[in-house]
Design a protein that fits this description.
Blueprint: E1 10-16, E2 21-27, H1 37-51, E3 57-62, E4 67-69, H2 74-77, H3 82-102, E5 107-111, E6 114-116, H4 118-124, E7 128-131, E8 136-138, H5 152-160, H6 162-171, E9 175-176, H7 177-183, E10 188-189, H8 193-205, H9 209-223, H10 228-239, H11 243-253
Parallel strand pairs: 2-3, 3-5, 4-6, 5-7, 6-8, 7-10
Antiparallel strand pairs: 1-2, 8-9
Helix pairs in contact: 1-3, 5-6, 9-10
């Protein structure tokens, strides 16, 4: 049997912490983890599986080292007619990255190297981003005569504001991990990346899963302009009648650490 073609890329999921942590590995290291339409489709399938699973935290990792993801496979999309670029390539990226952003579970992008173009947009679709000091970030699409097409203009602006978003997109300059953290693009920078990720996982698993997922939805709604006075009152009434709330209150009164069910 001939060896597998490693240039095609794979998207796999593994589970740890008794199934409570799902790790998505996007691996096309031979091509700097450049994304193809097939890989986007595989990622969408894996995200659907995770959404229905007992997993409470999702990690997004990529293959190889020194490069998180360079984004879309330029050789693939540059050959498409304008209509197919619109109907297939851009719509696929938006659909899949929106699916990632809508996962009920908290998501963490583990950025261990260069994250540019669609690679940065992939990280932006996660709730949290933890980076190695060697990581760099950029949106260089203007050099190709195009624009960030998988949500980058919106998600980047939401995180860092319009002026800094323009700085990255219009000048095509890259920023380092420390600058990204200072801007609010990255949550933490750690040389011991895996240890820092594990610390976040521990904190996330220590929270009530239903309250955590409801809070994630409320934050998304607030960013879209929903009035917190209304959404929080409804959500508070709902969470106050969950088993998680009863568990948390009981543990608080007993001065114990709460242990929440997986779902």
């Amino acid at each position: 049997m001939p060896p597998a073609d490693t240039t095609l890329g794979t998207v796999t999921v593994s589970h740890s912490h008794d199934g409570l942590v799902a790790t998505v590995l996007i691996d096309r290291a031979a091509k700097l983890n450049a994304l193809t339409l097939d890989m986007l489709g595989d990622l969408e399938d894996r995200l659907d599986e995770i959404a229905a699973s007992p997993a409470r935290v999702v990690l997004i990792r990529t293959g190889g080292s020194r490069v998180f993801c360079v984004g879309a496979d330029i050789a693939a999309f540059s050959q498409l007619p304008a209509a197919d670029m619109w109907r297939r390539w851009i719509s696929a990226g938006h659909r899949v990255f929106d699916r990632l952003a809508r996962l009920p579970q908290p998501t963490i992008a583990v950025v261990d190297g260069l994250a540019v173009g669609g690679g940065l947009e992939l990280a932006l679709a996660c709730d949290l981003r933890i980076a190695h000091p060697a990581a760099r970030f950029g949106l260089p699409e203007a050099a190709l005569g195009t624009i960030p097409g998988w949500g980058g203009t919106a998600r980047l602006t939401e995180l860092v504001g319009p002026s800094r978003a323009k700085q990255l997109i219009l000048t095509r300059r890259q920023i380092d991990a420390d600058t990204a953290q200072r801007w609010g693009l990255v949550n933490d920078v750690a040389a011991t990346l895996d240890a820092e990720v594990e610390a976040y996982v521990t904190d996330l698993l220590g929270s009530a899963p239903i309250a955590q997922q409801v809070a994630k939805q409320l934050i998304t709604a607030a960013a879209a302009g929903a009035p917190a006075a209304i959404t929080e009152s409804i959500a508070s009434g709902f969470t106050a009648h969950t088993d998680d709330f009863a568990t948390g209150v009981q543990a608080f009164l007993a001065r114990e650490t709460p242990r929440f069910d997986a779902r």
